[in-house]
Amino acid sequence: MEKELPYDLLVESLPAHVAFIMDGNGRWAKKRVLNRVMGHEKGVAAVRQVVESCRKFGIPYLTLYAFSTENWARPKREVDALMGLLTRFLRKERRQLMKNGVRLTAIGELHRLPDEVRDELSSVMEETKANSGLTLCLALSYGSRSEMVEMVRDIAEAVKKGEMDLSSVDEALVSKTLSTRDLPDPDLVIRTSGEMRLSNFLLWQCAYSEIFFTDTLWPDFSELEFASILKDFQGRERRFGKVLQP
Ligand code: FPP
Questions:
Q1: Are 136 and 51 in contact (CB under 8 A)?
Q2: Tens-of-pLDDT digits for all 246 residues of the chain?
C-alpha cells in the first residue's frame, strides 16, 4: 500500500528537489525592533523545520541558499554572526542529521569560509555521507555566475590538454561539470519575503524549475505553508517547452 502523506499531498507528483532562497531575516528582526542577527537566529529554526518536513514528505533533495558570494559585502559583524550560526548549527544538528538519515553536502566557494565553518562542514559531510534519507545541500559563498566561470575553465583546460574534444561539449557535460553534478535539477524553487528574483542562484539548473514567491519572511515560514506550496506545485502542468497531448 502507498504511504499516505499529510496535507493531502500526492506521493506520485512530489518534487524530487526543492531549493529555497531564504530571504527576509533582516526585515523580520526590523519589524520587531531587534538586531538583524536575531532574524538569522530565528531563521535557523525555520531551516530545521523545513529539513524535517522534507523527511516527513519524502522529498529526497533540498538545497538552501544560506550565504551568497554577494553576502561577503555585508558588515563584518553580520558576516561573523552568520558564520558563527552556521558553525553552531553544524555542531548541534550533527546527531539529528544522523538520526534522520540526512546526508549533508555543500556547494559554493567553500575555500572562502572561515576554517571553523569549513572544518565542521567537512566533518559533518564525512560522517553523513552514507545516509540516504534526504540530501541537504547548503549553498555557501555560492554564486551561479562564479560557478559557471569555474565550469568553463575546467572544460577549456580539458580541451586544451587534449583530454576532451570540443565537439563533446554539450548540455550533459556542462551539468556534469557544475558543482551540482550529484543533484537533480530543482523541480521547485521557493523564495520568501516577496522579492521576485533569482539572485544568482542555480541559474543553469533552474531552466525548467517551477518558481514560487511568497511574501512570508523566512523566519515565519511554516510547514503548513510549505505543504500548500507543494499542493500548488502538484497542480501545475510542467511542459518543459513542449505541447502536451490532449
Ligand atoms: C537573507 O535574509 C538570509 C540570509 C542572507 C542568510 C540565511 C541564513 C540563515 C537562515 C541561517 C543560517 C543558515 C543555516 C543553513 C543554518 P536577509 O538578511 O537578506 O533579510 P532582509 O532582506 O530582510 O534584510
A1: yes
A2: 567 899 999 999 999 999 999 999 999 999 999 999 999 999 999 999 999 999 999 999 999 999 999 999 999 999 999 999 999 999 999 999 999 999 999 999 999 999 999 999 999 999 999 999 999 999 999 999 999 999 999 999 999 999 999 999 999 999 999 999 999 999 999 999 999 999 999 999 999 999 999 999 999 999 999 999 999 999 988 777 788 776
Say how many Å lie between the CA of residue 41 and the centre of ligand 1: 9
Check pocket membership of 97 for ligand 1, CB cut-off 6 A. no
- Spatial distance between the Cα atoms of 91 and 87, rounded to a whole number of angstroms: 6
Q: Where do the structural domains in the chain lie, given as residue ranges?
A: 6-144+186-230
How far is the centre of ligand 1, averaged over its atoms, from the C-alpha of 179 (Å)?
22
Find residue 17's DSSP bridge partners. Answer: 61
Q: How far is the CA of 177 from the centre of ligand 1 (A)?
A: 28
Examine the residue annotation and report whether 35 is marked as an active-site residue of this protein.
no
Ligand 1 pocket, 86 CB below 6 A? yes
Give catalytic status of residue 23 as yes or no.
yes
pTM greater than 0.90 (yes/no): yes
CATH 3.40.50.300 corresponds to the domain 6-144+186-230: no
